[in-house]
Specification:
It is built from five helices and two strands, in the order ααααββα.
Length: about 160
């Protein structure tokens, strides 16, 4: 495999893995009520964000090379309903990430410039990966920020603590 492609694939696997771990270390600090908290009707709870991410992952990464990334059977609006318990949420979460890693772990150098479609728009595989990297990191940031607001002084930092 081309050295650059191999390195790119190694790095994106590492970054997606880090994102997943960051979210999971965050939700470990929260009880069920906190997972479902949202400040107003225009905002989402951590539960809703995680449901949405899972729905997006399943849609985008299932049959990655053969079907559009926005599946006709996806019920996107239902992802934004706070109607799931922690166990169901974590099962959905794992299903989404499994779809992503199943594809990413099988990619090779030749795949990276292949064309796939998302919402009928052509993307190289690299573009599609970077699109999802941006989307997921955006939501992981929201998850952490919401949790920090909820936990306040009880928040256990996930990175280097201030003044250390």
């Amino acid at each position: 495999m081309d050295k650059i492609a191999k390195e790119y694939l190694r790095v994106i696997i590492e970054r997606f893995t880090d994102m997943k771990k960051t979210a999971e270390k965050t939700i470990e600090q929260l009880n069920d009520e906190q997972l479902n908290w949202y400040p107003n009707e225009e905002s989402n709870s951590i539960t809703v964000i995680m449901k949405h991410m899972s729905g997006n992952m399943i849609s985008r990464w299932t049959n990655f090379f053969t079907t559009d990334g926005e599946k006709a059977n996806r019920q996107r609006d239902e992802e934004f309903i706070n109607d799931i318990n922690r166990k169901e949420l974590m099962n959905k979460w794992e299903m989404g990430w499994a779809c992503l890693f199943n594809v990413i772990n099988q990619l090779n150098a030749e795949d990276l410039l292949r064309t796939i479609f998302i919402r009928n728009e052509p993307h190289t595989v690299i573009e599609a990966i970077e699109r999802q990297m941006y989307h997921y990191s955006y939501h992981i940031g929201q998850i952490v920020y919401i949790a920090k607001q909820i936990k306040d002084s009880e928040w256990r930092t996930l990175t280097i603590p201030r003044k250390k």
